């Protein structure tokens, strides 16, 4: 009996210490500045905005809260999530609703990839401190590279091979300041200039491209719109600019836009399409064919903010 007690102590004490350290790392990393992601601010209830912007990287890089704040005289915040379609955007929205006050308006950025999905768990390190959260765990379980059972249930195992994150989490937990990322309220002003990726993309897709839409994600989008309407959250769909030559490479673009127009009528919400905006005509406004740089996003944000005056009061 004594031997069993001794063995139990020898096992339980290290496990308790690992659990304690894992908790410290999680809490510390939740204060980290995450480039191109507002997940930490969302989860920790640090947003609480009147107007939120939701979308992929085309929200993160395209819409400046600083400009919208100044023009609309509202507290706005960009909770776009880089690299993800609506499935993960919906998860971020639900986390927002759990931890922040209800927004009055949502600027929902839409594009041809909104209803597509991916195979791989993108930027999983951003989600490590939240692996135990039910919403995060369910949303990410479908992807290759998602959290394994040992990572979910064995203390600190998820940080295996990530000693840099362990060290950073401990430092931040005990009051160290993180390095600035250049983000402002979830928005990142990309300083880069036009690269050659569009030419390579065009060569690789001579017959235009089309990604299959996922019916499950379409259903999630409809659930989201119905929830917002039932809870008096006004959604404004915005198709932000793309470089005009890129549009010609997208198969069934009219059909995709038709879906957004249909939702606009069904749910009685505005749909603003900026794909023909003057910003889309110049390479000086983009760092690649789908993303505005700082110059382009500044021009576009002023245009958008002034147009939003018609809907945000």
Describe the structure.
The chain has 313 residues and is of the alpha/beta class. The protein has one domain: SGNH hydrolase (Rossmann fold), CATH 3.40.50. It is 44% helix and 10% strand. It contains 13 helices and nine strands. It has helices at residues 2-29, 39-43, 57-60, 65-72, 86-99, 134-140, 149-153, 163-173, 197-204, 215-230, 244-247, 253-266, 294-308; strands at 51-54, 76-78, 105-109, 183-184, 187-188, 234-239, 271-273, 286-288, 291-292. The strands form three sheets. A five-stranded parallel beta sheet has the order 2-1-3-6-7, with helices on both faces. A two-stranded antiparallel ribbon has the order 4-5. Helix 1 crosses helix 8 (163-173), helix 4 packs parallel to helix 13 (294-308) and helix 5 runs antiparallel to helix 6. Residues 2-12 have low confidence and may be disordered.
């Amino acid at each position: 009996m004594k031997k069993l007690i001794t063995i139990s102590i020898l096992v339980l004490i290290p496990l308790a210490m690992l659990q304690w350290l894992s908790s410290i790392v999680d809490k510390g990393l939740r204060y980290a500045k995450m480039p191109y992601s507002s997940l930490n601010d969302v989860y920790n209830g640090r947003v609480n905005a009147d107007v939120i912007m939701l979308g992929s990287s085309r929200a993160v890089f395209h819409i400046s809260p600083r400009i919208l704040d100044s023009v609309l005289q509202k507290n706005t915040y960009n909770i776009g999530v880089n690299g993800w379609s609506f499935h993960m955007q919906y998860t971020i929205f639900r986390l927002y609703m759990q931890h922040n006050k209800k927004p009055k308006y949502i600027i929902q950025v839409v594009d041809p990839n909104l209803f597509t999905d991916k195979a791989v768990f993108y930027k999983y390190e951003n989600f490590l401190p939240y692996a135990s959260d039910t919403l995060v765990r369910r949303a990410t379980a479908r992807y290759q590279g998602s959290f394994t059972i040992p990572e979910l249930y064995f203390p600190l195992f998820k940080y295996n091979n990530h000693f840099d994150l362990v060290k950073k989490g401990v430092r931040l937990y005990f009051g160290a300041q993180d390095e600035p990322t250049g983000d402002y309220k979830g928005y990142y002003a990309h300083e880069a200039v036009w690269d050659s990726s569009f030419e390579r993309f065009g060569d690789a897709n001579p017959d235009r491209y089309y990604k299959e839409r996922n019916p499950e994600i379409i259903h999630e989008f409809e659930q989201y719109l119905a929830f917002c309407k039932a809870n008096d959250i006004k959604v404004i769909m915005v198709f932000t600019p793309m470089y005009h030559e890129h549009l010609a490479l997208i198969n069934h673009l009219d059909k995709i836009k038709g879906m957004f127009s249909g939702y606009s009528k069904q749910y009685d919400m505005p749909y603003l399409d900026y794909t023909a905006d003057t910003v889309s005509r110049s390479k000086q406004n983009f760092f690649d064919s789908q993303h505005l740089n700082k110059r382009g996003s500044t021009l576009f944000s002023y245009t958008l903010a002034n147009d939003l005056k018609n809907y945000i009061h």
